[in-house]
Fold:
Amino acid sequence: MVTWVGELWGQVESWLLALVDSVWALPTLFATTAADGFFPPIPGETVIVMLAVGAQSGGGVAWGLVLLVAALGAWCGDQLAYALGRALGTRALPALRGSRGQRTVGWAARALDRRGASVVLAARFVPVGRTAVNVTAGAVGFSRRRFMGLSAVASVVWSAYSVAVGTLAAAWLGDSPLLAVVVGVVGGVLVGVVVDAVVRVRAARRERSVLTSGVTNPDPSPSDREAALVSCSAPAR
Structure:
């Protein structure tokens, strides 16, 4: 069993190094970082970390080029998600059709209305969260020009962070590139979970504070909430 695991690990590591040195490295990077803006299962962060590990280990493309292509791909993916939300509504994507997805959409709609800039920036670090925010921004008519600018900043920061994670992991685990990738990806996921939790806790506290102070209207009725959710899910006209 141990021998089989060792052989499998070696094969995956060989495949990893082959991709890092391949002419398909940058096209794969662009495609995955663009796709995960509207389809969470695509491992955009994994490819960034992988290429950053390769760059730190002396192979593949320079980390500066990795950062540039990753940021461009992420920005393009965000714009496509916004366009999908604008044209088709939030139910256009399977990931947002379930009860959890619709709760996330409801949160994204409220958050964009109250603090759009911080939400777009923070959501970039949360796979499902960024999809919900991107699509919802289009569905609720969030300013396209403002979204493009915020998405550009978020994409650069997210790409720089992912490259940094891969570089640090490779510096610590340079003798095992695959292990460095695994550590880097796990670290990135944990940060995303933490960011998501912090954003939600702060949002909940702010809502409670506002409701307690009586600044806003009372909590909407169930019919009002349902109408708001339907408006987000319906195609924009």
About this structure: Residues 169 and 180 are 5 Å apart (CA to CA).
